[in-house]
């Protein structure tokens, strides 16, 4: 029930218009029942039987107003006028009530929730993306949104009004003969109960199918993202085989459980409906023969009860479609309920409310302990002071915790113990958006967005002046390859920067970080894709920024960090050595061993 309410909550902002449109469409569906009723009355007039009292009252009033005699002709004229008014008069209004409001609401809700889903994507903590790949997340959001959009008009414009129409039919028959109405009611309750039980079972299978489909989509998306690796390792056949197994698994659930289930459900529903139609026919004939109901009522009862049974099929089809989509709507709802990260306020606050900080760049890690899983600390009691404008290098074996330290500096994660201080203030007390705007990082893999080179360069600072951009490009040696590009700064780089080489992407990343003019600049293996010559020339150029801001450099190639003021060696999450290059080489510890290995290619004991 909570899940169902969660789904309804999607349309919370539109409840007034929803109730209005459902009520109006239902009213029209009920008013429509007057036509078979009037036909029955016409038959009574033609066969010389009396018409019902309300109709007779209308005929008498018409006679008084117009002066025509209250006879057979006037009765027929009045009945025909009423039929015309209801069937022709409502024709131009119905599409507006039946279609416009339903789709308008569905599209408005889609716009609202597509935006909210994007907000969610932007504010979920990084851990979420460690466990869920882009294909899985995108598929869940897209499927959920489209299912809500298609389902709403079907439920509010068709399923509910049809349900109310059946209630109206029941009321009309009750007025004619309560026993027939009771028979109708019992048959309806049994059919609906039977269908709902079947649909519940099938909806569980749908949820299973959705999960399987997400797994398949997620792997397909991974294959596309990693297509170069797939081709390089010639694993196309094994990827295809694995996906084929997944598709087979999906097919079995889809065909043998779900589809077969719906067919069986439909078979039983039809059998029950036809038996009920027959019973109502038999009852009505008996009632007419016994003189309990008139010939007109006999026709009316048969016509509208068959109308009621005729509604069963579309109602069950709509319920079936709803059941098919229910699971993905629930999954979308669950996605929207996921807890957001600490930086969620970024989207809710007004740009002018974001404080503008200016730091000297004094960074302190104080008794910092952290683990992705709190039982297994990745960083243990880290104490490190980085003075303003200092350049410090973090080195250590792979997995020693260097990148994690930087993630904590960016406040992607909260420490389990201790704190990160910027200019003496705990960063948890600072506004996370304003704080992050004063940092910049260049990763080993530089993310590039589809667009021009310039768009990518000014991504973090769209208001940067031309001169500022040029200067950053000069330092990062981007200007060198921009000159060779056909359209210069306006060259389109392609999705994920596929039209750039690895080294060019890294240089772009360095320039992009410099354009932000940060107080603390972090290089996470930022020159690893560069050839020795490019790396060396960037190092020379970068000398111009040494001492202008705090620099944190994570490097495996120790040759790149000799000039750092301080080299910090991490091992298994702890700081084991701190000093300048010469000091650490002299000390003969881990750094000395790593250094010798790189210089001579030999591992010291
Ligand atoms: N998102 C994560 N979830 C769980 N564990 C993680 C996550 N990221 C890193 N780790 C683990 O934390 C430890 C430190 O990883 P980290 O990336 O900080 O090391 P590193 O020194 O930067 O390594 P490298 O030099 O190879 O980049 C490793 O054992 C790693 O497996």
TrEMBL record:
Annotated ranges, domain ABC transporter: 363-597
The entry's keywords: ATP-binding, Membrane, Nucleotide-binding, Transmembrane, Transmembrane helix, Transport
InterPro entries in alphabetical order: AAA+_ATPase, ABC1_TM_dom, ABC1_TM_sf, ABC_transporter-like_ATP-bd, ABC_transporter-like_CS, P-loop_NTPase, Type_1_exporter
Compartmental location: Cell membrane
Transmembrane residue ranges: 20-39, 74-93, 159-176, 182-199, 271-289
The UniProt record lists the keyword Membrane: yes
Keyword ATP-binding set for record: yes
Top-level lineage group: Bacteria
Main subcellular location of this protein, as a coarse class: membrane
Listed GO CC annotations: plasma membrane
Residues annotated as signal peptide: none
Identification of the protein by name: ABC transporter ATP-binding protein
One annotated GO molecular function: ABC-type transporter activity
SMART domains: AAA
Annotated ABC transmembrane type-1 domain residues: 19-324
Entry-linked Gene3D superfamilies: ABC transporter type 1, transmembrane domain, P-loop containing nucleotide triphosphate hydrolases
UniProt cross-references to Pfam families, sorted A to Z: ABC_membrane, ABC_tran
Membrane topology per record: Multi-pass membrane protein
UniProt organism field: Phormidesmis priestleyi ULC007
């Amino acid at each position: 029930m909570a899940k169902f309410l969660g789904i309804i909550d999607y349309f919370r902002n539109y409840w007034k218009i929803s109730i209005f449109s459902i009520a109006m469409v239902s009213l029209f569906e009920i008013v429509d029942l007057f036509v078979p009723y009037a036909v029955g009355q016409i038959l009574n007039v033609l066969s010389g039987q009396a018409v019902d009292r309300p109709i007779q009252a209308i005929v008498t009033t018409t006679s008084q107003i117009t002066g025509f005699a209250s006879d057979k002709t006037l009765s027929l004229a009045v009945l025909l006028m009423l039929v015309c008014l209801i069937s022709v008069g409502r024709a131009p209004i119905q599409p507006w009530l039946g279609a416009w409001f339903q789709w308008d609401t569905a599209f408005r809700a889609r716009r609202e929730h597509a935006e909210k889903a994007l907000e969610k994507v932007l504010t979920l903590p990084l851990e979420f993306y460690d466990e869920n790949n882009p294909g899985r997340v995108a598929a869940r959001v897209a499927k959920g949104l489209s299912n809500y959009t298609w389902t709403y008009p079907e439920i509010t414009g068709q399923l509910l009004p049809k349900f109310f129409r059946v209630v109206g039919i029941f009321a009309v028959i009750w007025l004619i003969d309560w026993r027939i109405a009771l028979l109708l009611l019992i048959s309806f309750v049994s059919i609906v109960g039977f269908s709902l039980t079947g649909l519940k079972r099938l909806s569980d299978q749908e949820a299973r199918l959705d999960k399987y489909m997400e797994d398949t989509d997620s792997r397909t998306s991974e294959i596309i993202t990693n297509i170069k690796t797939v081709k390089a390792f010639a694993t196309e056949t094994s990827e295809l085989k694995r996906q084929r197994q997944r598709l087979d698994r999906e097919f079995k659930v889809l065909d043998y459980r779900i589809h077969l289930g719906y067919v069986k459900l439909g078979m039983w529903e039809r059998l029950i409906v036809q038996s009920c139609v027959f019973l109502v026919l038999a009852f009505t004939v008996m009632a007419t023969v016994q003189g309990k109901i008139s010939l007109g009522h006999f026709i009316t009862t048969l016509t509208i009860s068959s109308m009621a049974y005729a509604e069963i099929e579309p109602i069950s089809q709509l319920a079936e479609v709803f059941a098919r989509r229910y699971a993905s709507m629930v999954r979308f709802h669950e996605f929207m309920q996921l807890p957001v990260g600490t930086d969620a306020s970024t989207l809710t606050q007004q740009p002018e409310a974001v404080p503008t900080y200016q730091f000297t760049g004094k960074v302190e890690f104080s008794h910092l302990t952290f683990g992705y899983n709190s039982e297994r600390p990745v960083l243990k009691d880290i104490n490190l002071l980085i003075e303003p404008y200092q350049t410090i290098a973090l080195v250590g074996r792979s997995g020693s915790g260097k990148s994690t330290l930087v993630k904590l500096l960016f406040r992607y994660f909260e420490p389990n113990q201790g704190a990160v201080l910027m200019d003496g203030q705990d960063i948890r007390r600072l506004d996370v958006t304003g704080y992050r705007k004063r940092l910049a990082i260049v990763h080993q893999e530089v993310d590039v967005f589809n667009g021009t080179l310039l768009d990518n360069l000014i991504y973090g600072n769209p208001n940067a002046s031309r001169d500022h951009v040029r200067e950053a490009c000069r330092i990062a040696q981007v200007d060198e390859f921009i000159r060779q590009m056909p359209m210069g700064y306006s060259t389109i780089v392609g999705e994920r920067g596929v039209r750039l080489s690895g080294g060019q992407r890294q240089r772009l990343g360095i320039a992009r970080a410099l354009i932000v003019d940060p107080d603390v600049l972090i290089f996470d293996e930022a020159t690893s894709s560069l050839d020795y010559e490019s790396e060396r020339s960037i190092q020379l150029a970068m000398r111009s920024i040494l001492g202008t801001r705090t620099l944190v450099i994570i490097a495996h190639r120790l040759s790149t960090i000799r000039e750092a003021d301080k080299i910090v060696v991490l091992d298994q999450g702890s700081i084991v050595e701190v000093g300048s290059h010469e000091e650490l080489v002299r000390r003969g510890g881990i750094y000395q061993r790593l250094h010798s290995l790189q210089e001579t290619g030999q591992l010291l004991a």
